[in-house]
User: Which sequence fits this backbone?
């Protein structure tokens, strides 16, 4: 048993974690309420005569230096690859947030490597528990401490030295206006990609394989956003059901890459090799011009609620790390829905998060981060504030403020919906874009088919134009621009795009919760039949309608102002068979399918074409909000945006507010300087949100003889219907003059590009 500290209590505080230095390691760990901390060096048990239940031995080294709550010291002879953990001594008073239990080996919150599986027996809990007949573990979390040792039942931290010999980080530096995000899972993207060697599929190395990169670059993706790659565990309730945590939003270590995504060769070589594989993946993606953003989960940890496991933070300094009731450190506040929330009111939590972010940016070379449930990270004692010290640090830190930072702008606590309220340079997931797109193209038509009203064009138009209502209220005004809006129709949680048009109800029984999990607000439309269509006349009628609806969703996503995010596999019609919460489905239900039926190949071609259209025409990827009037740097009398109705006249005030009006034309002017610029033409988007075909008089300026070239119609199964010889930047179909009438199929959209540079008339304000 360690005794009270004997070293200085006012000495300099070394960097937290275990760091390789000359002759050994420098060790530092935060445990401000402990009376003693042991560094435990873990080694394999000697084989001869050892019990099969005893795999590990340990040497306990008391840390005697103690400075401002940090226990530290130099330990000679320790090198890379050494397994270790910590044990704390001190009061066991759960109601006061004091959970020191030296029987439990704790993971270093700053560990650069983590290995080993997590058991789920009573040994992994700090309080006394028993295992029931169903395998579940229960006990009184405020009861006595459990004295069973956890060494054989928990993962171990591993010493990892700074990497040497890697090329310097050279980021692609994709402009924000040109950014196209592709949200993917490390395993799910390549697990079924047969052109990748089998031993690389589902790994970090598989992501960087030339075949994977070829798909991303051919598609037009600039930025790969990876679901969590921090080391994580599976929750006990999933283990009891024979399931695993697939998504990874259950972090055990914020500095260690998840070893399960590395190749077997790297896993066998140890955490240093796993880190090298991650760094190599980032380097190869950078060489291909692709940025890497990590989805990071700093809002909670894998230790769960008060009755949860005793793995790291809980045993080191629970009342510092976890958000708790005022005056009741043992009562956790859960604003994440995951049992606990990290307390960003405390400087040490902010420090840990910033240290982790800098590590991944500098050591690994990633280009940015998407912050899961980011509102939790901006909560002080009164609630969310955009001036939170953590958010201020992101704006001012020289390592972080130049990266691409994305907030999921909500959590489940009071005042948790904060879309549009994060500070620059952060972008935000735009749930209003998702909802408006799904409603206009799916749930509204489903209602209309039964004679019930839906929504008009106003909200859809606002989302097409970049959501200035949400992201334009900055200081100075409009400084964030439409690039602050991460536009998405689907993400990892929820229906896939193909399932949005095939299911009106979630089908989540495989998750083991009797269908209780997953959102019920899906705004989807099955077009008349739930699930796969039969091979009969009814199915032959419904299938094309579903395919067109997918193209409408994809067109809306890729042609709107803002930063589009595609969910991996949506471009190829991936289905989860109606499961809208596949977080525990580490199987083919979640993996991307690469066997392309004709309609999936058509959808892939369409997505590639739309991204090329977006890339080639600056009017489709603006970085400033439209003003509806001439902009200062452009030619006079040429508004940058105008809205027209089906008759070619400006939309009236009444039409903006009429739910029955579901046809609109959006005229975006290209960036010009008073003379014709053939490389930056005007673009006209024509939307028909009715269940009937429509005759639309194309908009234009006064008596001009503007010629419009039709470059895409969502009624087309494949963009080759435009003509196989037509390039995106050189459209050559039959031109249409402004004022002429064109036909649109029911529930469809068309895109026209102008051949001359006159601007639109002044718009009616949305």
Assistant:
């Amino acid at each position: 048993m360690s005794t009270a500290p004997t070293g200085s209590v006012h000495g300099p505080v070394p960097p937290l974690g275990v760091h390789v230095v000359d002759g050994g390691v420098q060790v530092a760990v935060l445990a401000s309420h402990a009376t003693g901390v042991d560094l435990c060096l873990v080694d394999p048990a000697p084989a001869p005569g050892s019990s099969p239940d005893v795999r590990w031995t340990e040497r306990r080294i008391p840390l005697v230096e103690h400075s401002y709550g940090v226990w530290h010291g130099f330990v000679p002879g320790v090198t890379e690859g050494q397994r270790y953990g910590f044990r704390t001594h001190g009061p066991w008073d759960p109601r006061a947030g004091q959970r020191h239990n030296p029987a439990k080996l704790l993971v270093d919150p700053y560990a650069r490597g983590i290995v080993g599986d997590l058991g789920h027996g009573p040994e992994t809990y700090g309080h006394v528990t028993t295992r029931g007949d169903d395998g579940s573990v229960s006990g009184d979390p405020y009861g006595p401490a459990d004295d069973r040792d956890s060494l054989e039942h928990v993962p171990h931290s591993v010493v990892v030295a700074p990497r040497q010999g890697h090329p310097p980080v050279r980021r692609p530096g994709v402009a924000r206006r040109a950014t196209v995000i592709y949200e993917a899972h490390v395993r799910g993207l390549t697990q079924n990609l047969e052109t990748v060697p089998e031993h690389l599929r589902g790994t970090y190395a598989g992501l960087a394989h030339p075949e994977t990169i070829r798909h991303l670059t051919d598609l037009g993706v600039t930025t790969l956003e990876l679901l969590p790659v921090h080391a994580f565990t599976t929750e006990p309730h999933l283990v009891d059901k024979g399931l695993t945590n697939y998504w990874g939003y259950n972090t055990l270590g914020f500095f260690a890459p998840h070893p399960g995504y590395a190749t077997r060769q790297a896993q066998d070589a140890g955490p240093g090799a796993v880190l090298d594989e991650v760094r190599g993946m980032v380097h190869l993606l950078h060489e291909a011009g692709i940025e890497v953003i990590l989805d990071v989960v700093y809002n909670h940890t894998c230790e769960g609620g008060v009755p949860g496991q005793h793995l790291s933070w809980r045993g080191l300094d629970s009342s510092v790390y976890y958000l708790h009731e005022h005056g009741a450190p043992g009562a956790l506040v859960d604003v994440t829905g995951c049992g606990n929330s990290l307390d960003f009111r405390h400087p040490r939590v902010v420090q840990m998060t910033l240290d982790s972010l800098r590590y991944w940016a500098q050591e690994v070379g990633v280009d940015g981060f998407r912050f899961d449930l980011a509102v939790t990270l901006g909560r002080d004692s009164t609630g969310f504030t955009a001036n939170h010290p953590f958010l201020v640090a992101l704006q001012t830190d020289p390592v972080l403020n130049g990266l691409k930072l994305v907030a999921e702008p909500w959590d489940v606590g009071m005042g948790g919906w904060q879309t549009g309220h994060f500070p620059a340079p952060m972008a935000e997931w735009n749930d209003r874009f998702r909802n408006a797109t799904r409603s206009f193209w799916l749930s509204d038509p489903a209602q209309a088919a039964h004679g019930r009203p839906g929504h008009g064009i106003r909200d859809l138009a606002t989302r097409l134009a970049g959501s200035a209502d949400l992201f334009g209220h900055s200081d100075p005004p409009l400084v964030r621009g439409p690039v602050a809006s991460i536009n998405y129709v689907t993400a990892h949680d929820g229906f896939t795009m193909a399932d949005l048009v095939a299911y009106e109800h979630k089908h989540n029984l495989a998750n083991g919760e009797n269908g209780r999990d997953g959102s019920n607000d899906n705004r989807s439309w099955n077009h008349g039949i739930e699930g796969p269509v039969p091979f009969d006349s009814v199915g032959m009628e419904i299938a094309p309608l579903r395919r067109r609806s997918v193209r409408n969703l994809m067109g809306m996503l890729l042609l709107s102002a803002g930063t589009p995010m595609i969910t991996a596999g949506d471009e190829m019609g991936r289905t989860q068979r109606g499961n809208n919460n596949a977080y525990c489905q580490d199987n083919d239900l979640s993996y991307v399918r690469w066997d392309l039926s004709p309609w999936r190949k058509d959808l892939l071609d369409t997505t590639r074409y739309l991204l090329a259209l977006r890339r080639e025409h600056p009017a489709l990827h603006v970085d400033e909000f439209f003003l509806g009037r001439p902009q200062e740097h452009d030619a006079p009398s040429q508004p940058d945006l105008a809205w027209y109705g089906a008759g070619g006249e400006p939309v009236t005030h009444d039409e903006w507010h009429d739910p029955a009006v579901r046809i609109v034309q959006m005229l975006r002017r290209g960036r010009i300087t008073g003379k014709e610029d053939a490389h930056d033409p005007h673009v006209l988007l024509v939307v028909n949100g009715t269940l009937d075909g429509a005759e639309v008089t194309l908009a234009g300026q006064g008596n001009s003889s503007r010629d419009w070239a039709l470059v895409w119609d969502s009624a087309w199964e494949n963009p080759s219907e435009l003509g196989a010889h037509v390039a995106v930047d050189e459209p050559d179909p039959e031109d249409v003059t402004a004022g002429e009438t064109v036909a649109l199929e029911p529930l469809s959209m068309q895109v026209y590009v102008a051949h001359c540079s006159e601007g639109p008339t002044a718009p009616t304000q949305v």
